[in-house]
Amino acid sequence: MDLEFTAERAEALLREWTASESLVKHGLAVARCTEGYGVREAARLGLEGEPAARLAEMYRCAGLLHDFDYDRHPTPAEHPFVGVAYLRETGWPEEICHAILAHADYSGVVPETHMDKALFASDELAGFLTACALVKPTKAIADVEVAGVKKKMKDKAFARAVKREDMTRGAELLEIPVEEHIGNCLRAMQDHASELGL
Ligand SMILES: [Fe+2]
After folding, report:
1. How far is the CA of 50 from the centre of ligand 1 (A)?
2. Which residue among 30, 42, 86, 156 is least crowded, i.e. fewest CB within 10 A of its CB?
């Protein structure tokens, strides 16, 4: 039996397993981006009310939990496999487990569902948008604009660890222009700036 998944439970699990505050913030940021895609998908499916809210919450949980085992198990041999094994044992929905496996391109599981794709697409971009905010004098995500993000994507020296091809591939998977994907995630993070400390 699946447990009743809630974002509150997912965030508690993320915090329980994660000592690094920046990794917690990363989970929160990715979760707001995936949640936004869940809201869009619910609308596309014609869902309203409780079913729409549940779908968006599931997307948010996938974001919250995608790296929850990373602090304890950072190697590609363990992350995200140890975390997913724990989630399965404790009854988290298989859709969430599948999305978490698919966000790791070495896992052998490829993004198939819309939620898989939303998580894959939001992961690198959320990190990149955080980096874009932190170089602003205000360090505020509110001051980040899509055009500036696109410019920084071309600047190879900026936030070098973030793979540009994952950001563009993510937009391709979602079948939307990269500008739209950036805008979607930027707005999601701006709407929750204080939660993200940005
Ligand atoms: Fe991540």
Report:
1. 28
2. 156
For the entire predicted model, the pTM comes to 0.96
| Structure-token pair, residue 1 | 């039996």
Q: Please write the tens of the pLDDT for every residue from 38-93.
A: 999 999 999 999 999 999 999 999 999 999 999 999 999 999 999 999 999 999 99
| 3 C-alpha to ligand 1 centroid (Å) | 24
For residue 179, being part of any structural domain is answered with yes
Distance (Å) from CA 13 to ligand 1 centroid: 15
The tens digit of pLDDT for each residue in 134-171 reads: 999 999 999 999 999 999 999 999 999 888 888 899 99
> With contact defined as beta carbons under 8 Å apart, do 79 and 46 qualify?
no
Instruction: State which residues have CB under 5 angstroms from ligand 1, the bound ion.
Output: 67, 123
Distance 151 CA to ligand 1 centre (A): 22
Half-sphere exposure of residue 119, counting CA atoms within 13 Å on the CB side?
A: 29
Give the pair of three-digit tokens for residue 114: 């819309």
> Does residue 1 lie in a domain region?
no
Residue 2 lies in a domain: no
